[in-house]
Amino acid sequence: MKRPTYTLPSIVKKVFRPGERSLPRTEICSRMEANELNAFLDLDCKTILDKVLNMEQSPVRVGSSEAIVEVTHQPHQVYDLAHRYLRDSQAPKKLEQIVAELRRQTQFGWNQILRMLQLERDPRFVQYQGDSRWFLAEWTLGNDQVYAFCRDNGITQVAARTLVHFLEQEVGIAADAAFLPAQDDRFRIDGDTMYIIARSEDSKEEQAALEVAVAAPSVSIGNSESVSEEIASEEPANPLHQVEEQQEPLFTKEEATMSTITNQQVLEEVQKLMQEAINRLETRNQEMSQEVVAHFQQSNMQAIEVLMKEKHKHEQIVLGIQQVLATSEQQ
Q1: CA angle, 141 as apex, 58 and 274 as ends, to 5°?
Q2: What is the pLDDT of residue 249?
Q3: At what angle do helices 301-330 and 263-297 cross, to 10 degrees?
Q4: Cβ neighbours around 160 below 10 Å, total
Q5: Which UniProt keywords apply (predicted)?
Q6: Torsion sign (Cα): 280, 282, 288, 293
């Protein structure tokens, strides 16, 4: 059985709650078991903790006594900026993407950021085995929810253009939930198409009905960006495959909707996304205003200059989006 599984350091980091700096070994193992963090590993909790403690870039170390384990992370501005970047984008990022963003926001060079930014140590950042991207520990995982929804509703086909709508509106997956089909043997990626495979624990009737084809779109919402990135990594040059027809179209409502999609519906969706982008940029500008005051009190003019450049850039982007919106509403 294959399911999305945290790396060993991430398993240990998930045990610590916000603000906690140390825990007894027994408490760490107890929390691992309670949250089933080692459910898909052939390792007991004590072995996992010992392995992580012996790692070079370990997020934890032995504390004042052998019975106590403490976090090694030391707070720094670059970690907070990286956390904000992932939180605002609501999508996992590779290390080079994070470093590139921090270079844009700070005066630090590439090598400086790499030396300072040891995400392995910060409990707020986690990784899944087989995935080089970084996720926030606070994010949930939506694989079980997606699979259960398809099984319970007998869904046999979802068109490529509707995956974002399907995850958000039909399944009701949270905006900050990751969906990782490549790490889950209930899903199979074939080119640009993802199949949902009935497992042996399902009934025979479900096995006969449950082979759902979901083609990955080129757009994403929240952490459903994971789907398009994983599928693109399989065959990035292929166009979207047409989803095969099913003998018994159990999801006729969705297919009927897609067969009658109009340009107006597409335009309205684009307009909604652009308005959300404007709202997010304006929210960030409000946050920066408070940060400017804090930096001014500390006489940190360099930080203020960086924030003002970012604010100006956001204002230009908002103006451009508003112009595009005005043009689309006239048509």
Answers
A1: 110
A2: 36
A3: 160
A4: 19
A5: Coiled coil
A6: negative
User: For residue 126, which amino acid is it?
Assistant: V
Q: For tokens 């934890």, what's the residue?
A: 60
DSSP per residue over 165-219, as a string?
A: HIIIIII---TTEE--GGG-TTEEEETTEEEEE--TTS-HHHHHH-EEEEEPPS-
In the chain, domain spans: 8-71, 77-136, 140-196, 262-329
Q: Contact at 8 Å (CB) between 179 and 149?
A: no
Please check the confidence at residue 138 and state whether its pLDDT lies above 50. yes
Dist. CA 292–CA 305, nearest whole Å: 9
pLDDT over 60 at 112, yes or no? yes
Task: List, for residues 210-249, the tens digit of each pLDDT value.
Answer: 444 444 433 334 455 455 455 444 443 333 222 333 333 3
Task: Give the residue carrying structure tokens 């709202």.
Answer: 279
Ramachandran angles phi, psi of 23, nearest 5°: -150, 150
